[in-house]
C-alpha cells in the first residue's frame, strides 16, 4: 500500500504492506476552504463581543503577527484586519518572533506584505520585528512564578491589542494560541528563558492549557505563566483575537473577538480534529509536515515530542525531516545541538542546575533517545551532524521499511504525518 508523507516542499511515497500498516495519522479530514480571506472576514463580521472597528476607533492599536516559522496565512489575516483599523489613531504591527531569528527572509517578506497592505487604509502605522536581544525594552515586574516580564517598548501602552493566531497543539505550552504572541512573542531573551524553564515540568505538556474547556486540563504552569505575562503587558487594554485552524494553508476554522472564549473554541476544534489516542507500536514513521515545520532539526523536533507516545519502549522511529536551514537558529545551537552531542545520561544530568534557554529541547530529545532503540532520520543534514546527536542518517526511507519487515514479517508500522499539528496520547 502506498503512503504519501510530507517532506520539505513535497512528498515521500512509502510502500507498506496493508498487513503491516496499523494506520495513518494526520489531522482528521474536515470541511476546509481555499478562500481563507472569506472565512476570516466572516469571523470578523460576527465576533464574540464588540466588532474590531468599534474597539479601535481613535485608539492606539498593536497588531501581533506570527513570524515566518508558522505555516499561517499571514497575508489573508492582515488583509482581513487592516480595513477594520482605519479609524485607529495609530497602529503598531509587531512580528512576534520570540527568540527566533529576526532578519530571516521570511520575516522580511511578512514586513513588506504588511506595509503594502496597511498603506492602503492606514495613515499612521509602523512595522517592527521583535528582537529578543534588543535593549529597547520595558521591565513590567515579575509574574507570580518569578518570571521577569521584560517587553519590547513598542508593545507597551496601547489601548487595543489584536492577536493573529494560527492555533495548533504545542508540546509544552499546551496549544499555540493568543498568549504566545505576548510571551514569548514580544519579550526579551531573559523573560523567554525564565518562562521556558517550566518546560522541564511534566505538567507543561500538550493538551493542557488555562483556557481549556475541561477544568481538569488547565494545570499547565508554563502556559499559565504566559497567560499572566500577557495580562501584565496588556494591562487594562482590550485584547481582540483572530484565531485560525489551518491545514496546508486551507482554512478549517476561524473565530474572532474576546480572546479567552475564542481560544477555548479553537481548542475544542483542535481536540476534535488533531488529537488521537493510540496503542503504542514498535515502529513509527514521523513527519513534521514539510516546510517550514521541518526547516531545521530544532523546529522539526516538535513533531517527535507530539507523537512520541505512539512508539513503544525500545522501538524505532523513522523521522522524515528535511532541515534545509540546518540544525538550529544560531541562538539555539549551543544549548540545543551542542548540548545534545554529549552522552545521553550526561545531557539529562547537566540540565538539573540553572536552566538556559533551549536546554529543554535537548533534555526532552535525550529522554526519548534513551527510551527507544533508534531514531533513523532521512534529512539534508550531513551524516556527521546527525551521528553527533545520536541519530542514524538513512539514504532511503523505503529501505528502512523493508528492513523492518525483513526482521519481523508481522511488524506493525504506524505513520504519523503533519506531526507538528497533532497530539498523540497512549491508550
Report what the structure shows.
By secondary structure, this protein is an alpha/beta fold. Helices cover 32% and strands 27% of the residues. It has 2 domains: 2-27 and 275-426, 2-enoyl-CoA Hydratase, Chain A, domain 1 (Alpha-Beta Complex), CATH 3.90.226; 36-273, 3-Layer(aba) Sandwich (Rossmann fold). Strands 3-19-15-16-17-18 form a 6-stranded parallel beta sheet, with helices on both faces. Strands 6-5-4-9-12-13 form a 6-stranded mixed beta sheet, sandwiched between helices. Strands 1-2 form a two-stranded antiparallel sheet. A hairpin with a 2-residue loop joins strand 1 and strand 2 (10-15). Helix 3 packs parallel to helix 4 and helix 10 runs parallel beside helix 12 (359-371). It is globular and about 70 Å long. The two termini are 26 Å apart. The mean pLDDT is 96.
What separation lies between the terminal Cα atoms?
A: 26 Å
Name of the CATH architecture of the largest domain? 3-Layer(aba) Sandwich
| Count of distinct structural domains | 2
Strand tally is: 20
Number of helices: 14
The major beta sheet can be summarized as: 6 strands, parallel
Helix content: 25-40%
Largest sheet, order of strands side by side? 3-19-15-16-17-18
> Which CATH first-tier class of the largest domain would you pick?
Alpha Beta
Report the radius of gyration as a whole number of Å: 21 Å
List segments where confidence is low: pLDDT < 50 over at least 5 consecutive residues. Answer: none
Strand content: 25-35%
CATH fold category name of the largest domain? Rossmann fold
Q: Helices and strands: which structural class?
A: alpha/beta
CATH homolog superfamily of the largest domain = LarA, N-terminal domain
